[in-house]
Amino acid sequence: MRSLMLKLLTITVILSSGIFANTIDKNVLNYERHRINTNPNIMLKNLSIYFKKDLKNGWTGYALDIQLTVMPQHKTVNIKDVVFTDGKVITQDLKNLQNGFDFKSIMMPTLSSKYYKKENFITGNINAKHKLVVFSDPLCPFCIENLPKAYKAVSKSKNIAMYYYDFPLLGLHPASDVITRYLTIAKTKNVKDLIYKLYSANLEKYFSISQRDPKKIVPVLNKVFGLNISVKETMSKKVFKELQKEIKMGEDAMVRGTPTIFFDGKYDKTREKFKKYLK
To answer: What is the per-residue burial (b if ≥16 Cβ within 10 Å, else e) of 137-164?
Structure first.
């Protein structure tokens, strides 16, 4: 009888916790829905929980997938938002008072296999168990310093496959717009060590990061890669659409800055976990 009572109690606790979790999920969605609807220039089309993460401190982080229509242009946009709750209060920012740690920095999804596409593979062993995914801006100083080193290290290893995605930060590096458009075409030209050459080229010797004129940028890139891609090709709508697909992969991964690195599907804040598996 005692054993039966314990089993019933356990089942009751499990069911209660599930109901409580569902209630919190609904409350979080209701909060976000109300917050968005207070803006008369925005119409909410869809809202769902992208993923949630137990922060091990009584708090849960929620990543929300939001589709909006922006008025009066009637433009549809998709965004991700992050909120935190302990079941009683909800906030858009959560930081540790002692060390300033921002919990938003770890609100990253687990990458699915769609990120391991052949066309984004750049070096290493494509059949390797371990996967390194890099989101980068070609004019990001930290990327320029470290990506070539990572590339060379992985190229000598049979244990890691390295994948690359363009994620231009145009507010910081306007010239990255033309560079990543150009790169979208160059990736189809079978240029050996394309990404390594790009990040080793020291492009700022030739033009400013604020340069926007493709006529000043494209000839330099042709010289670097030994190609003959025209300005017209680079600035075509087709290339723009292809680049946006790649950028969306970064947005879906909740990339906020560069370089952002995932190792075996998990966000790696240290950017160095892959080094353990090089040999």
So the answer is: bbbbeebbebbbebbebbeebeebbbbb
Residue 222's CATH number: 3.40.30.10
If one counts the domains in the chain, the total is 2
Kindly state the average pLDDT of the residues 161-183.
98
Residues 98 and 135 grouped into a single domain? no
pLDDT of residue 201 exceeding 70, the answer is: yes
Classify 121 as helix, strand or coil: strand
CB 247 within 8 A of CB 102: no
Answer yes or no: do 178 and 234 share one domain. Answer: yes
Would the pLDDT of 13 be above 80? no
Task: Name the pTM for this structure.
Answer: 0.88
Mean pLDDT to the nearest integer, 172-199: 97
Cβ atoms of 148 and 156 closer than 8 Å = no
Give ∠ CA 77-38-49 in degrees, rounded to 5. 50
Between CA 244 and CA 167, with CA 239 as vertex, the angle to 5 degrees is 35
186 shares a domain with 76: no
Strands 160-166 and 130-136 turn out to be: parallel
In three-state form (DSSP H/G/I as H, E/B as E, the rest C), the secondary structure along 226-278 is CCCCCHHHHCCHHHHHHHHHHHHHHHHCCCCCCCEEEECCEECCCCCHHHHHC
Q: Which two three-digit tokens encode residue 264?
A: 């075996």
Q: Which amino acid is at 200?
A: S
How far from the centroid of its chain's Cα atoms is residue 22's Cα?
A: 28
Using only C-alpha atoms, the chain has a radius of gyration, in whole angstroms, of 23
> How far apart (Å, rounded) are the C-alpha atoms in residues 13 and 111?
33
Q: How many CB atoms lie within 10 A of CB 119?
A: 9
Whether residues 46 and 139 fall in one domain? no
- The C-alpha atoms of residue 100 and residue 115 are separated, in whole angstroms, by 32
